[in-house]
What we know:
Layout: E1 11-17, H1 23-34, E2 39-41, E3 50-57, E4 72-80, E5 82-84, E6 93-95, H2 103-111, E7 115-119, E8 128-129, E9 132-133, H3 134-139, E10 149-162, E11 170-177, H4 183-193, E12 198-208, E13 211-212, H5 219-226, H6 230-234, E14 249-251, H7 254-261, E15 277-283, E16 289-296, E17 299-305
Parallel strand pairs: 3-12, 14-15
Antiparallel strand pairs: 1-3, 2-3, 4-11, 4-12, 5-6, 7-10, 8-9, 10-11, 12-13, 15-16, 16-17
Amino acid sequence: MSRDRSGGLDGIIVVAKPSGPTSHDVVGLVRRLSGTRRVGHGGTLDPFAAGVLPVFLGRATRLVEYHLGHPKRYTATICFGEASTTDDIDGERTPIDGPPVSRSAVEAGLRGLTGPLRQVPPVYSAVQVGGRRAYQMARAGEDVELTPRDVVVHGLELLEWDDRDPARPVAVVDVRCSAGTYVRALARDLGARLDTGAYLGALVRTESGRFRLDDAVSYDVLREHAAEGPAGIARVLRPVDAGLEDLPHARVTADEVRRLGEGLPTGPKAPLDVRNADLVLAMGPDGGVAAVCRAVNGILHPGKVLVPRPATDGRPHARSST
Length: 322
């Protein structure tokens, strides 16, 4: 069982978040159940949304930043014929008069929303405007002007079509997109393309980088394991470097771990597969991540060190904060 210096656990739990709790709620639950102080998540899900939420414990929290840019995948339920103030089911909705929406028109609209896009975030979003959150300004009745941001929609596929109510048809869409893409905004913009209103009725994140919903742990299962104490939680804990398998890994000796802990470059005895790389995970003899490094001509230069620095005069150094 891997533990951090405060006595908590090290690793990643991939949680299947239900609709309702916030991402912060999930972090709080994992913190309580695991007895681990340092806990964070790898990408916010709105309260009404469900699906994959990677939760990082202990030393794994220092690697969250390397996950945030990973692509995402969702199953989105898009409802036509109404606009929502929040672009989702939680907002105040207004019927929009417009031509009937057909399946073929939706499929054509989806094709027009794939590839690189300049996307305007929803007004009710956490984007900061002049140091304030956009949703705070919107709730106060203030006008909010948001700058478009560059996103990439890798694919949109219509999975289901329900037009039993011709004035309010519903589409279920598979969405593959870059990090930072607002699926609510995709629903809104799809409605605008079809001269009607549209909002997000439901959302499930099915993939976050290499983490899959099929492999995620439900709330109930998490609580069952927690009833057995830390050992139970450890059984659903993934390694600190889970999800980063595509990064180069370098095996280093205990002496090399010591050098990295001192902030010194080292040439690992085992040759690197990639001699030059911005990100390399240095793996110690115990199989854990010792440091995140930059490789230059086969030499590892420590950037973020995850192991304590060696003791001097009987007193341990603080862990590197780089």
